[in-house]
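Hi D.,

Good news: the full-assembly prediction came through. Inputs first.
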Amino acid sequence: MNEQRQPPILLWFRSDLRLADNPALTAAAMSGRPVIPVFIHDDPPDLGGASRWWLHHSLEALSRDIEAFGTTLVVRLGDASMVLGALVEETGADTIHFNRVPRPRETRQEEQVAGLLGSRGITVHGHDAALLFESRFVRTQAGGNFKVFTAFWKACMAMAEPSPPLPVPKVLRGWRQSIPSIDLETLGLLPAGIDWAEGLRAVWTPGERGAQERLTDFLEDGAINSYDSDRDRPDREGTSRLGPHLAFGEISARAVWDAVRTMCAPGKGVTRFLTELGWREFCHDLLVHHPDMAERPLRPEFRTFPWRTDHQAFWAWSKGRTGYPFVDAGMRQLWQTGWMHNRVRMVTASFLVKHLLSPWQDGERWFRDTLVDADTANNAAGWQWVAGCGADAAPFFRIFNPVLQGERFDPDGTYVRRYVPELAAMPSQWIHKPWSAPSTVLAGARVQLGGTYPSPIVDHARARTLALSAFKAISKG
DNA sequence: TGAAATGTTGGGGCG
DNA sequence: ACGCCCCAACATTTC
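Then the structure:
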């Protein structure tokens, strides 16, 4: 049989926009048969603006990397099973390889593809590539899923080490014909009106190469060794910032794990960093078992929590105009750069839920729209954790004091000054509570509360009391 | 992966 | 010298 007459393989890219440690790609390449790489955009409703921007550039990068193999990434718009069905018709492909994505929407998609194309005699092959430990193997004694992180992670640590990452295949045979594909621009992922992505461009390099650079920078400059404490300091570059790269699968968790294991001496920082990868695993496991985790509180008593809807307050929160500098700095960092430091995510989220008594789902949606690392599992689990209604969650009565958090984790006010420039001249002593500053200090710093910078939209002590009594209303009985 | 309220202790000022 | 009070420092409990 003429080699060129062999039916091609469809390599379906999804949230795995990488060539390294990509089992589907490796399987397709190893077959020796022609491979047609394809990305299908079906305009998922939960894809936020910042993620859309990232996706565009990540696909751009992936296209370039695939072109280095002498082949082309086919991009299509539409329902995945329909598009794959059409491609089978067009090319005579008889096999599809893809990497599973452990999220309800994607799992449904996989089932559809397997059903529709399987019934047409196509071999549909899903690979595990998203997690360190496949959630279906992480089970309690009783065979259920874990509800507490430490127990979950302990069970993971008792399992075999994650398998080492696969190398990029040397060769990828292309298909003899060119296949209709649409321009990335046609997907409409970039900002349509005003260009709000400037701050994102300044900070991020989407794509596999950007991901690997971010990782090696983090490991080589030694930041990981002080990760245990520096991770809480938004005024320092103490975190890896790998979030968005992991969210789009530009680098695999296994590759990160392996790099840390082989390049770093064991220590507290290293352990802590790997544990954070563990949280990612745990969140994905939770989402698998609670597909509605982004809408519905895991703890049922929270369904009757007396949330308020205050559009003005939500606007102030989302724009970083609450009058609490640490909160505002975080919300503005998010808006400008598509990312927020984790410590500040906790504080800002707590502020929305506990000081403003806004439904956590509203905050979840805002983060999902504005974060470049928006990830259904991590985001929903994180918000439920903060709101106190999640698995292994912080109790509701654990209410962050935004002033104390600022003073503890941004002691010199460097972070606040960076993102709230109207407070730049405030002395550190007052920068987290400008309303307490003597009027001479305010005047000296050219700060006019309620003018150049908002007065606090709520009083901390009062808001705290209100939140506690609202919590009491649902917790009795 | 809190903060505030409340309780306890111990040193020092002072009558 | 002694007891009393104050209060900071730390510990515990409560929300």
